[in-house]
Each structure stands twice: as C-alpha cells, then as structure tokens.
Write a structure and sequence with these properties.
It is a single chain. With 297 residues, the chain is an alpha/beta fold. The longest helix is centred in the N-terminal third of the chain and has 17 residues. The protein has 9 helices and 13 strands.
Amino acid sequence: MISFVYINIFPVTPCNQSTMKNILIFNDFSPEAEHAAELALLLAGKTNTNLYIWNTFDEHENPVAKELAVAHANEEETAVTTDNSNWILKLESKLNWETGLLPVVKFIEGTNYAPNHTLSIVNRYDIGMLVRGIAGDESDLLHIEAEALSCSTKSGCPVLLIPEKFTYKAFEKIVYATDLRFCRREIVSFLSQLAKPLNASILIANISAKGLPYMEDGYARTVFADTLLTRSNQEHVYFSNIRERDIPRAIDVLVNGMNNDLLVLVNNKFHFNELVGQNAPYAIPPNIPIPLLIFPS
C-alpha cells in the first residue's frame, strides 16, 4: 500500500526573478508540434510571456519537409517555409476567442536549428522553458528523444514534453517527484512562478532514492520546512512523504490516483531512469498520459 502523509501548506521561497521567462517551442510541422503549440500559446498567455517558434528544418535543405506539412488528412499538401505562419495565426485566433488572451508570438530567424545553437537562442530571447510535442509509435508508446534532452542540457532550460493526445487545458495540479534530500530549490521556485498565474497547486512528492533509507515523517517535515519554505509567500505548495519504493507504481498513483496533470522530473537523476529506462530513446509508460517537465541534471 502507498502511504501519503500531507503536511500543512507553506509558501515556497521565491527566486530572484518575479515572473516567468519566455517560452521556446520546437516546430517540425507535425500534428504533435501543432498540438504542443496550442498549449504553449495558452501557457504564454496565462504567464504573460512571449512565445518563440523555432522551425527545426528548412524546406530547401530537407526533402521530407513537404511531406511533414500536411496538417490534416483532408487538406491538400503544402510546402513549408519559414514564412508559413497561417497555422499559428489560427491557433492564436482560437485562443483569443476562447480566453481573450493574445500572447506575443515570434519566429526565430537567422539561426538554423541545432541543439548546439540552443544556448545562444535562450540567451538572446530570454527563454526560460523549452516545449516539444511528442507522438506515440505504432503501439502508442511515447518516447523521449535524446535530442530534446540535449537541447535542455546545453541551454540549462527545462523542456516541457506534451503528448499529442493530452487534453488541451492549463495545468491545475503539478507534482515534482524527488528525493527531498536532493530536492532543488530553483526547481521549486520555477514551479512556483509557473503555478501562480495558472492558479495551480504544487505537490512535492518525496520518494527515497534507490539505496537510501526511507525518511521518517518528522524528519521529512523538518527538511521540507527548513530547506524549501518561507512564510513570506502564499503559493499553494503541498508535501507528500511516500513509503512506496516501486517508482513506477508510486508515480502511477500520483498521476492517475491523485489526478496530477504535470509530472516534473530531473533528467538522469533518481526517479527519471526508474520510470522511463536507462537509455535513450526513453519510453514513457502508457499509464503516464500527461506532460512531463524535465529539468537538466
């Protein structure tokens, strides 16, 4: 049985910046990229940030570009160019009609896409989060490609991976699965900035790392209060001390039993590899249908 022990709400230590930085989405003109862009637009509007779009290929250099430009099966095939922005204009119009939000959207121009170029783009446009859409294979199994994690690692930014079938909505319940002894304050601060404009809650789920002893509730409560919390902020941050040592099972309960809609992990640390495997391309279990926010280690 999985045991969840809840500790009273305390505020999170605010980070140096008071607002979210801008959002950068990688666009390969696939259906999953368009779906991710729709959610990225919503997040940009809610967090009052700009959305930058970086096309990941040039049609003149990539002969398959034209094939990837088919947005819908019943529409004619069209060539893709960096000037083709009709698709994002339609998404902007839909967002504005439904919510009244109209975030600033800009395309990255003059720099060809490559993981090694990500850091310069992040610095130039004040980017704080990367976004990439992901689609399932023939068996609907979702994969995390090494290139997405490479962009995150080289830039120092977390990458938000959005499954193609994830329901379009703002996040309401965010869960950060970590070992509290190694929980990173800057991640909690980032999540606090993201959660506040979304009116979302944050759950710090403490699952002891493999080989380390279970943290008794009193000790865990003390570590949580001493290292992460301050009474100067009113963010809704919860804590859960989990006895279950089977990581996939514990995360299954966090996602499906407790209805969290954004799972936060650190690349190649602690629970990441136990959930998705040891080598890229990492496979996301079918019972985890929500977006993953992966921070570089």
